[in-house]
Prior knowledge:
Blueprint: E1 12-18, E2 28-35, E3 45-50, E4 55-60, E5 68-74, E6 79-85, E7 90-92, E8 96-97, H1 101-109, E9 111-119, E10 128-132, H2 136-148
Antiparallel strand pairs: 1-2, 2-3, 3-4, 4-7, 4-8, 5-6, 5-9, 6-7, 9-10
Amino acid sequence: MRRSSPEPREGYDWKLWIDEMDQEGDRRVFLFYAQKNDDVDAAELRFLCLASEGEVYAAVRVVDDNLYNEVDLSSQNEKLTLKASSSDRMVSSEPFTSNSTFMQDFAKSGWLQLNVTQNMEGISDGFMVEMAISTPEGMQAIADFVNNCNPGDMK
């Protein structure tokens, strides 16, 4: 199902943060959706990859002690479901690759919709957040994340 792009949220955009190489020659790459001056820890949604492995993880920050059992991320044509992780109280995904259809669709459209499909009591509470690019830099951050998370393109 093809969806139209939502309006950007005032003051929010996608940002890229790349760690320095570690002793093993790898680096962590983050893509996150946040306000202009926020860092990755304050982000509502973040993607993380180890560049040499090409595996991407998505995580949603728990807000106000609301625990979510299941969250759907939808882009223009694709959907990714995140399951709760009891060890760190984060809602996170199984690993997927930067060249997955979900990431490619997201990179092309520049936006995601986050829907809580179940809270910990198994009740759908209809919580939804739209995360759209608002600047050319946001679109470039998404493209750079996908490129940096491809193990064949180690930089």
